[in-house]
Amino acid sequence: MSKILMIVSAATSLELADGSAHPTGFWAEEVAASHKALRAGGAQVDIATPGAVRPTVDALSLDARGGVSEEDAQEFRAYLDSIDDQLAHPLPLAEVRPSDYDALYLPGGHAPMADLAHDADLGRLLNEADARGTTVAALCHGVAALLSATTPDGAFTFAGRTLTSFADEEENQGGLGENTPFYLESLLRERGATVETGAPWSDTVVVDGNLITGQNPQSSTATAEATLKALAER
């Protein structure tokens, strides 16, 4: 059985470009749909957060304001309730050993921009995992978490790699717009990654060796399935 560590942001607030505080958390679909698909594929899924803090779901991800239908919201709520014990008692990120896992999986919501993007413990895990060839999967704004990984000279560990992320166009259409702390797609390009995005809100997954990235919430299940496929082919 493959073991996958899902690393979830513990942030509840995000400082916007204008200096105001914006409530945030993980995006329900990205955790629920991913976790469900990974378990359905036979994997053991553990959850870790910085400081072992219980993660908070972004209220918008269970609401029409976030483009989520009531039917879908009910489905995501039910699944999150079914894994509530895991969410209530996550592993402390600082104590995780990447050698214990076959893959690291990073779902989004805007929250990773507030903590995981500059978390030193995560950066260490990602560097070690990438060096070992461990599968690293990131989804939507969860791709921001990859920015925590740098080389000894300060360069982005994943510079030169091909990936996708929540697109700048999507941020303008249905995200935080110009008040976002940073445009993720643009920043990844600035740090040296090759970013390939599909049409806004399309199910888009990019695989580059051991690195798997999904563009948006609509790519949740496909990103999880790509992770399972990569593990099966090892």
UniProtKB/TrEMBL annotation:
Domain of life per record: Bacteria
Positions of the DJ-1/PfpI domain: 30-229
Any single GO CC term annotated in Swiss-Prot or TrEMBL for this entry: cytoplasm
Keywords in alphabetical order: Glutamine amidotransferase, Lyase, Stress response
Pfam family, one: DJ-1_PfpI
Signal peptide (UniProt feature, chain positions): none
Single GO MF descriptor: glyoxalase III activity
One GO biological process term: methylglyoxal catabolic process to D-lactate via S-lactoyl-glutathione
Family per record: Belongs to the peptidase C56 family. HSP31-like subfamily.
Name of protein: Type 1 glutamine amidotransferase domain-containing protein
Organism this protein belongs to: Streptomyces mangrovisoli
